[in-house]
Specification:
By secondary structure, the protein is an alpha/beta fold. It is built from 33 helices and 30 strands.
Amino acid sequence: MIKRYIEIANKFVDENKYSSIVVALVFYLLVALFCFTDVYEIFELKLYDLRFKIRPSIDEWDRLSFLDIDENSLTIVGQYPWPRNLYARGLRMLRGVDVAQAGFDMMFFDESPKTIDDKDFESLMKKTEEGGRISLSDLKKIGFDKDQIFADGIAAMNRVILSYTFNDEPLNYDVLERQKKESFKKSLMRFNERSSVKLTPAQAQRLAGLDDPHTKSISYPIPEFMGTAHAFGYVNRYTDIDGTVRKVQMVKMFQGRLYFNLALVMLMDACRVPMNGVEVIPGRRIILKQALNPLTQSVEDISIPIDEKGMMYVTWAGSGQGKGGRREKTFHLVPFFAVLEYQAGSAYDAKLSIGEYAGKLFEQEDRIKSDQLVDLDERLQAFKEEERDADPAMKKTLAASITELKNKMDALNRNPFLGDLKRRLDKARAEYAATPPGGRKLAKWKDIVGLKHAANRTKLAYLKNYSDEIAAVRDKLQRAKGKLRDELNNRLTELTYDRTAMELVIRVEDLADRIALVGLTATGTQDIGAIPLHNEYAGVGTYLNTINTVIQKQFIKRAGWPVNLFLMLIIALTMGVVIQRLDAKKSLVTMLATFIVLNLIVILLFDFFNLWLEQLGIVLSMFMPALAIVGVKFMKEESQKRFIKGAFSYYLSPSVIDRIIDDPESLKLGGEDREITIFFSDVRKFSSIAEKLSAQDLVNRLNEYLTEMTDIILKYDGTVDKYMGDAIMAFYGAPVAMSDHPLKACLAAIEMKKRLRELQEVWQKAGKDEIHARMGIHSGKATVGNMGSRTRMDYTAMGDGVNLASRLEGLNKYYATHVMISGSTYEGAKDRIETRQLDFVRVVGKTEAVPIYDLLGKKGSLPDKIYEMLEIYNRGREYFLKRDWKQARVQFKQALKLVPDDGPSEVFTHRCEEFIRKPPPRTWDGVYVLKGK
């Protein structure tokens, strides 16, 4: 059954000139249908991810910062969730270092439990012990409202953006009951104003694609926070079918209002765009009208491409290398515990006495005298010892180092150089705020950035002294022993802690003018997900990357299905047509080259133009039609190979068969005209030999002879056409074309003569009759091919050239020669063979005279005696053609004296005598007409 299908496929491909187009269209349709399946989408998304991992990272906007609640923060501050007064403390610090905006990718849906202030409680207890009366106001006074403290911090910070979520389930009863309170309703009005835009019925209809019917409710922040936050953005994250985050829904419609993603809200605030300044065109773009571009400081419309559902593909910063999601290497990252400890450090200012002394250390911008640094370090160590003595339970931690080094940095900040930088920085900020958008505003912003970098370079120069001392201690540690080694190890640990802590302090102070986003990355906080670059990535990074994508204008554009399907069709048809014209091996090479080129084009378009083409669809549309056609070709070629081996293995050399298999086009079944050299041989007086042998001995003797001769024919790439008793017919130049077929035929005949002489000696010693063969060779046109019936055919040659070769073999009997070749064969091999011209003959039934030659051997291989004889013979031929029969006879007789058994000399001697008696007519052209075949 399978064989039948293969035959049908082969026949269809062979007989239908449009078969490649039909195959391409069929498989294109199959691939196109496959493109709309989930399996296809998963594979295409993985290829999309791979493109991200190998592409160069995009630039990162230097104003983006990530305040990371990481493992260290939980270790130092305490188990999550934290009391909300800690966030208030963090906001006070952020306000102190001039953070431009603070966002929270955290949920504050429930109220915190009330706690008791320790000092107020102690005061109340003292009042009770003294017999005082406790009033209701006294009881309320000891209450410690952490939510209110955080709300006050939000209000004081002013530019704080909080998050909320949409839910697919209705709110529970308790939440609904809380929302009935007047305080909630009042706060909700403010929330709606600062989180969304009311849509008209016409607008709602136009934006209907942004409405998710599964959304049932919103989880709001508590009323205290809704009443104080600057703005709100939703933080619902959407994953693709494989659970990976690749895009963000920038806008969403719910209950007739248009809501904005947290990243978009933070971006709108940074660009000074109000919510009513946003235009949404589903399936095309979001336009932030009259936005202040933070990079150019110019006012312009910022366009953000989105799909019908408001989704934008995120262009992720960083690369696929590294571990842990590269969070530490993407954007300006500051652990949140460093923020809290930095803020807490101000409480120790009064206890430290080293501030003024540290302020004298900077005599120049970036140099510190080592003796002063050592003195400062000794005084710092003394302070640490006092701290440990005062609180035995206190452990040496990174947080304690930050607290202490904060004070050193405070002292450093009192350095005159840094003080001057700070004054210049304050002045630059004031000028920036007063400058209208445009080129001058950008210049002012660059001044601010430059001054900040100058201040940080000065602080880092101070930090470098720690690095130098760490290196010195490590060097001493390699040579130290005993107690000194322990002391150096302790010193190295302490210096390492201090250097790390100071670096974190510098990073905290570098938050000035930045947009900070607070989020969770600690294990167990459930805010870790997969993105194209990493399987584990902090969810908060999605919003930073979304903002960065818009600011850098690095938008991923996924080509629509009409474009992709059209490209796939063109590729499928092109490959089908090209592969149809090639053999199987060339087809595979073409497929591989096309595969590489197409993938390279897709990757380069993604890397440099952010254009996402359907890589899997394009590759499949190239491969599937090509594989189908190549598969048929392979089956057809295997069938051809079997046919060729079966048809030619008995009369072609293996090397020729291999060449035919490699190039089947060289063999056109059915016959074609070719320039070939035909060979005939026959055993002289074979019938008399056969009469003396039994049937079995005759077969053995004949097989021995034919085997030896056939091996030589095949050695010179000849094709054995047939055996006719003791006769052999072969030809050279078919089925595989060769330009030197006359020479190969001659060389084979010469070697056959040589081998026969060797065999004759063997046979003579064995008492067997010798075998002598005559050979005829002619080069010319003949029809070659497989001829016969459907069930039985032979690869053979036919035509006048074949007949002439047969006649030449017979002419050897007349001239008493062994190998006779025609003039055309002579012309094709004369530079490599020794010959003599015998005659011009006209065979029976033909009018055209043919020059014939006696093939004697390879060039330069004859004995001197033969060369001497040939010289005399050729002189006799010259006299003969001049009709000087007597002088010609003299030369031929002289040649016979040298070689008595030379047949041609004897023939021409008799012919001269004949012409002396009866000369030919004056019109004779020198051609001798044979009397028989």
